[in-house]
UniProtKB/TrEMBL annotation:
InterPro entries, sorted: Nuclease_put_TT1808, Restrct_endonuc-II-like, Uma2
Descriptive protein name: Putative restriction endonuclease domain-containing protein
Signal peptide feature range: none
All residue ranges annotated as the Putative restriction endonuclease domain in the record: 13-171
Organism: Methylovulum psychrotolerans
Coiled-coil stretches noted in the UniProt entry, renumbered to this chain: none
Source lineage: Bacteria, Pseudomonadati, Pseudomonadota, Gammaproteobacteria, Methylococcales
Length: 194
């Protein structure tokens, strides 16, 4: 989890008022603000590649894909997060007329970073599971071509993992798939020759 900005406790309304005018993004967890830090080249490439692939597959369908600037409200307004990619199918529901806080994501995707991986797998996933509309939660590695997908089932969440550039991760809830070759396009290229 990113570092706490300051130990002051805020209400959700105070957070939203501050966040909408702040020069940087912060996540909100149990009354505390957590500054979002910049992402690595690999992290950015992976997120953009995923958003591109999903946007192409969702074209002409009643779904929208958002990349890391769409805030998600989780756990009854006690937590707000910025996933790397969010997809909503059907009419999007927002917290208010600002249309910047999505309430009903269908799929949420996080690109794992060393500083946030434990929280993405633990506390954040716990909060995301409380979103009734969420069908799939996807974790994408940066250091190797590997994707984990947790899919909501009647009796809990089921994990599917794929590894290797020839693998494909099905996202059944939105009738899409992620080719790892496309997800990791240019990610492992040597950039020192540029």
């Amino acid at each position: 989890m990113p570092a706490v900005i300051q130990p002051t406790r805020y209400t959700a309304d105070e957070y939203l008022a501050l966040e909408r005018h702040a020069p940087y993004k912060s996540e909100f967890h149990n009354g505390q603000l957590f500054a979002m830090t910049g992402a690595s080249r690999k992290h950015n490439l992976i997120a953009v590649n995923i958003a591109r692939e999903l946007s192409l597959q969702l074209k002409k369908r009643p779904c929208e894909a958002y990349i890391n600037a769409m805030r998600i409200q989780a756990a009854e307004a006690r937590h707000y997060y910025y996933p790397d990619v969010a997809v909503v199918c059907g009419p999007a529901q927002f917290a208010d007329s600002q249309l910047d806080t999505l309430l009903n994501p269908t799929v949420l995707i996080e690109v794992l970073s060393p500083s946030t991986e434990a929280f993405d797998r633990g506390g954040k996933f716990s909060d995301y599971r409380k979103i009734p509309s969420l069908c799939q939660y996807v974790l994408v590695a940066q250091d190797q071509p590997s994707i984990e997908c947790f899919t909501r089932q009647d009796k809990g969440w089921v994990l599917t993992e794929v590894v290797g550039l020839e693998a494909v991760m099905p996202l059944v809830s939105i009738a899409c798939s992620l080719s790892l070759r496309e997800v990791y396009d240019k990610v492992f290229e040597d950039i020192h020759g540029l």
